[in-house]
Specification:
By secondary structure, the protein is α/β, with parallel strands linked by helices. 36% of the residues lie in helices and 15% in strands. It contains 13 helices and 15 strands. The strands form 4 sheets. The chain has an 8-stranded parallel barrel, surrounded by 4 helices. It is globular.
Length: 426
Amino acid sequence: MHDPSPPPNAARTPVQAGIFPTFFLSGFECSTFIWKDQGRRDLVAETQHREHVDEDHAFLRSLGIAVARQGIPWPFVDKGGTYDFSGLDPFIASMNRHQILPIWDLCHYGYPDDVDPFAPEFAERFAAYARAAAEYVTPRIRGPHFFTPINEITFFAFMGGEWAWTAPFGTTDEQRRRLRLALCGADIAAVRAIREVEPEARMVHIDPLILVVAPRDRPDLQDEADRETYEDTFYAWDVIAGRRHPELGGSPEVLDIVGVNCYSFGQMEYRENGPHASLEPHDERIRPLGDLLAYAWERYRRPMIVGETSGLREGRPEWLCDIVEESLAAVRKGIDLHGVCLFPAVDMPDWHKGGWLHNGLCDLMEENGTLKRVPYQPYIDELRRWQKRLNRVTELDEDPFSDPVDLADIRRAAEDMKITSDKDWC
C-alpha cells in the first residue's frame, strides 16, 4: 500500500478542469427489475433510501462528495405513456438542499409491465419517457445535467436475455444478443431525446470492465474467453459510439462519458453454461486493472470515470486503496479519468440470497422497523487519506459547484507517487 500523504512543496501545474465538482462520486442502488419468482422489486424501498433521503445526501455532503448516481424508476413513473414524476420531488429537494449533483439513471434493469423490449416501438417508448424525465428534472436541479439512459446494457442483457434472472427471462445467447441490441437502440434514441430538451446534457454510459480467462484444463476455450473480454465487453459501447450498427445513430458524442464498473469478481474463469467463476486473489491469470482501464481509453478516447466500485466487509478500505492506485497508474498512461464512484453510498441486499452485502460507505442495521445508517469508519478513513493526497475537499463548501476538479492535482499525485499497475488485488 502506498503512503498517500502529500509531498512537501509540490510544484503547481496549470488548472485542468474536470467534468465534475468532486473526484469521488457515489450513488444509491435503485434496481426495479422483475426478479425471478419474486415479482417486481424496488431496491430504493428495500434500502429505505426514500425515507432516509435527506440523511443520505447529508452524509455524502459530510464526506466531500457532491455527485451521486440517482435512479428514476421507469416502471413506477410511466403510466402507459403518461408520467407521474412527483415521487422524485423529495429527492430533488434534498439534492438541492445539500448541493448534490445527480447522474440520473433512467433504466436500472426495470421497464414497465406493458413494455416489450423486443417490440419495434421499444426505442420510441423509452425515448418519450427520457424526454419527459429531462423536462421534469432539468428545470428543478442546478446544472450541469448528467444522465445514464440504460445502466449496464451488457450485464442487463446477460441477466435478462440468457441467465433468466430478470425480465424478459431469456435463456439463450441469441436472446441475449437481441436484448442487447434493443437496449442499445433505445439508449441512443433517449440520448437524442434528452438533448432536444437540454442540448448541453452529458451522458455517462455505464458497463462492467471485465477479464475472462480459459480454465487451466480447457485451453481450447481461450477464443471464447477472449471474445467476452475484447468483444462482448465493448459491444454496447461500440454501438453507442457508432462503430457497430451505425443505422441506430450512435456516435462518439452520443457515447460521451465512459463509465467502467470495477469489482473483484469482474475477473473470471470462463464457464460454458451460466455465469463465470470469479478468480481467486493471487491467481496468476489476473491482469492489473490499470491495464484494462488503459485499454478502454485507447478504444474510445472519451472521458472516463470508474462508474461503480466497492469492496466487501472488512476488505473495503484495502479495495479502495487498490482501485485508486490502479486508477492513478492508468492516469500515468494518459487516460482522461474524471472520477471514481464509490457505489453504493449505503448498503444493499444480495439480490440472490438476501442479507446485506456490507459494501457501502454506510452499513444498514435493522432497528425498530427502520434501517439505521452506520458509517463504516475504516472505509471512510481510507477515503479521507486519498482526498488529502489528491488535494480534494473532505467536506463540501458553501458552493461546491463553483470550481470543478483540477485534474492537474490528480495527475501530479500519480506522478509524485510513481504508481505502476500490479496484479495484487485485495
